[in-house]
Design a protein that fits this description.
By secondary structure, the chain is of the alpha+beta class. It is 32% helix and 34% strand. It is built from 6 helices and 7 strands. The chain has a 7-stranded mixed β-sheet with strand order 1-2-3-4-5-7-6, with helices on both faces. Helix 2 crosses helix 4 (48-59). The longest helix has 16 residues, at 106-121. The model is unreliable at 186-190 (pLDDT under 50).
Length: 190
């Protein structure tokens, strides 16, 4: 089993990122290009190399690499998007996560669990959401094991290779922040 830990890829670390590490992230993103590069904010005629850099930069300081502790090899990445702030912390955010096949299983679970614990304990994030295509049992089972619960299924939400796809929304709440009486008060705007 691989030993995985995570590293925050903030603006300073991004500037110092060596080419080998960037190339590993690039190859992993390129394998998932239909998910990552179809985002309207990152479309264009730019080369994929430049677009990968833009994705990392746009999500910094909420972009993490999963690394093999022994070799330093990039085994995956995670980043937050659609962040909803609340006072001096994050109320909710979507997480996009990706692992190399050789990290699937217990290694990916441990790396993701460590990052989740960091998000809840250190960054005080209240709610983390994830999405996957309906019927993707690999991802939905992975999310269940991490403690996520199915929240909704959005019908015909995505188009992949000219085919309509349903999207499942999964979420997990910070166990250290009460959701009852001590929870943040949400004021409706209407």
């Amino acid at each position: 089993m691989l030993t995985i830990n995570f590293l925050n890829l903030d603006a300073e670390r991004l500037k110092m990122l060596d080419f080998t590490t960037f190339e590993q992230v690039f190859k992993l993103m390129l394998k998932n290009r239909y998910k990552l590069f179809d985002d309207e904010h990152f479309r264009g005629d730019k080369p994929y190399m430049e677009r990968v850099y833009e994705i990392i930069e746009a999500h910094s300081p909420y972009f993490w690499l999963f690394l093999d502790v022994k070799t330093g090899e990039v085994l995956g990445f995670c980043y937050f998007y659609d962040i909803v702030p609340f006072k001096n912390r994050i109320h909710s955010a979507f997480a996009s996560i990706c692992f190399k096949k050789e990290a699937f299983g217990m290694s990916a679970f441990i790396g993701a669990k460590r990052l989740l614990n960091h998000m809840f304990r250190v960054m005080k994030v209240f709610k983390i959401k994830a999405e996957c295509f309906e019927g993707n049992l690999l991802i939905s089972n992975f999310l269940k094991k991490l403690g996520f619960e199915h929240e909704a299924t959005l019908q015909n939400e995505a188009v992949v290779r000219s085919e309509l796809k349903n999207i499942e929304i999964w979420s997990i709440f910070n166990p250290e922040i009460p959701t009852g009486k001590g929870a943040p008060k949400i004021h409706r705007l209407y």
